[in-house]
């Protein structure tokens, strides 16, 4: 039953992970993406993780620790966790592993299901699926260009459109995480009753502690009645050039090119 619950929530994480990494517009850390369900009833959702911009001259390696807690109807909760390795080199190339979420404290072992390698100069994104046979790396277009600086957008405080509620942006100051200076922000959104089908008012919040020199959040916390509580923490952060072999395709994998052909100029 535990294995079934694990796979139900994250079996489609490979698809969502590639979509998140490949997108041009930056999605804030955390949240969930609904996925199509092939069976009647039930819910299939995918956890969104941290965003790593293709920032040049800011190499690092780190471990992303994820903890996702969701409430139960009887007042309890259940928590899924995983750890995965990420890296970026001075050219802005990004390496990410995707590991299956497993129940915290269970005997289930997390397994790596995807290796992602993005190159902002070649505009390539490889999604290599480790649990599928035959082993394949799906090649897609990586639309994001390499950048020399990165600063996340700021949510303005004030009323939401159409009388949906209001939002509040807070600057939390500075904090050292793993010996790296970070800047903290918190965005709280208060929704009025009736929004998104709700029968009562509710709130959702996002708290980020970003390292300006890396353009990455070293700590992210997302909370709300729909997503529960999601915490992403970066540990084992090394500010050095990662192993170049990380950006090589795994041995024994065939490449399936799914890039869309360029549209001819009119």
Molecular structure report:
This protein has 266 residues and is mostly beta strands. It has one domain. 7% of the residues lie in helices and 45% in strands. The protein contains 2 helices and 16 strands. It has helices spanning 2-10, 13-22; strands at 32-34, 45-47, 60-71, 77-88, 94-99, 102-103, 112-119, 124-129, 136-141, 158-159, 165-177, 180-191, 202-211, 216-224, 228-238, 254-257. Strands 3, 4, 5, 6, 7, 8, 9, 10, 11, 12, 13, 14, 15 and 16 form a 14-stranded mixed sheet that branches. Strands 1-2 form a two-stranded antiparallel sheet. It is globular. The N and C termini lie far apart (56 Å). The relative contact order is 0.19. Mean pLDDT is 86; it is low at 1-25.
Kindly summarize this structure in a few lines.
Helices cover 7% and strands 45% of the residues.
Name a few traits of the molecule.
266 residues, mainly beta, two-stranded antiparallel ribbon, 7% helix, globular, disordered N terminus
Task: Spell out the blueprint of helices and strands.
Blueprint lengths: L1 H9 L2 H10 L9 E3 L10 E3 L12 E12 L5 E12 L5 E6 L2 E2 L8 E8 L4 E6 L6 E6 L16 E2 L5 E13 L2 E12 L10 E10 L4 E9 L3 E11 L15 E4 L9
Parallel strand pairs: 9-16
Antiparallel strand pairs: 1-2, 3-4, 3-15, 4-5, 4-6, 5-7, 7-8, 8-9, 10-11, 11-12, 12-13, 13-14, 14-15
């Amino acid at each position: 039953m535990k294995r079934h619950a694990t796979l139900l929530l994250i079996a489609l994480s490979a698809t969502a992970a590639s979509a998140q990494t490949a997108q041009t517009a930056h999605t804030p850390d955390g949240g969930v993406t609904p996925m199509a369900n092939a069976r009647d009833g039930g819910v299939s959702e995918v956890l969104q993780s941290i965003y790593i911009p293709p920032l040049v001259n800011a190499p690092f390696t780190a471990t992303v620790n994820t903890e996702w807690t969701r409430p139960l109807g009887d007042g309890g909760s259940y928590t899924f966790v995983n750890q995965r390795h990420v890296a970026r080199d001075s050219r802005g190339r990004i390496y990410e592993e995707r590991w299956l979420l497993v129940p915290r404290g269970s005997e289930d072992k997390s397994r790596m299901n995807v290796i992602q390698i993005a190159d902002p100069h070649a505009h390539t994104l490889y999604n290599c699926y480790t649990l599928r046979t035959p082993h394949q790396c799906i090649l897609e277009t990586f639309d994001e260009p390499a950048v020399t600086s990165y600063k996340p957008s700021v949510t303005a405080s004030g009323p939401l459109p159409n009388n949906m509620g209001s939002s509040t942006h807070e600057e939390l100051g500075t904090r050292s995480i793993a010996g790296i200076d970070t800047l903290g922000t918190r965005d709280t959104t208060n929704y009025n009753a009736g929004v998104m089908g709700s029968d009562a008012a509710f709130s959702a919040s996002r708290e980020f502690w970003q390292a300006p020199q890396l353009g990455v959040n070293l700590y992210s916390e997302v909370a709300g009645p729909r997503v529960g509580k999601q915490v992403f923490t970066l540990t084992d952060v090394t500010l050095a050039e990662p192993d170049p072999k990380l950006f090589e395709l795994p041995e024994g994998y065939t490449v399936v090119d799914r890039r869309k052909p360029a549209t001819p100029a009119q």
